[in-house]
Amino acid sequence: MINATVTSFVFIEIINISSSARKKAFTLSNKIDNPLDLTAHLPFRVAVVSNLLALNRDWKVRGLCDLEPREMRVLLNIGSYMPIKAADIAYQSRLDSYTVSRAVKKLHIQGLIDIKPDEFSKNIKNLVLNKAGISLYNKLTSALKPRSEELESVLSEQERVQFYEMLEKIERKTESLLAEQAMQMIKEGQEPPADQKELIRWYKKGLND
Description:
Blueprint: H1 4-14, H2 19-25, H3 42-53, H4 59-62, H5 69-81, H6 86-93, H7 97-109, E1 113-117, E2 125-129, H8 131-152, H9 157-187, H10 194-208
Antiparallel strand pairs: 1-2
Helix pairs in contact: 5-7, 5-8, 6-7, 9-10
């Protein structure tokens, strides 16, 4: 069994950026007291990988359509889980509702999705891909699967399982930090923006799951 220390190293190695190489190329500034070492800053390192994995950074994927990354992410969510509500897409992907709504509007205008009343509640709208949307979904997933397999190839099966477990822990901790901070600021009398209210709802939903 891999111990906790080795498991932590696995998480760092998956981003495929050598800390030592970065430290050689970027020395910490002596122009400021206690500069933040970004090579050892977890949120920064995760953000670096996220930037590289953005759908519009992949030339092959970008050539399949003229959608923005958020619209592709929403289309992929709809295709994988349809019929699905916009609010559920926001929760599943941790996109704010406004971003999802804008993406849904664009997808609908482009004739890729249909919006249908829920079978049990007419006030609830479900999102589904239509024929054109399904065709694009299949093209996107066909392009994305090889990349995912190539990325996972640097991990053993045990490391892959542990990596996903670590990602879930980091996601839940990040959500709790943001939500608890928002709730504290509300207690202090501040009016929360819509995205902060949403964070609190997600956090409370996770506690009840």
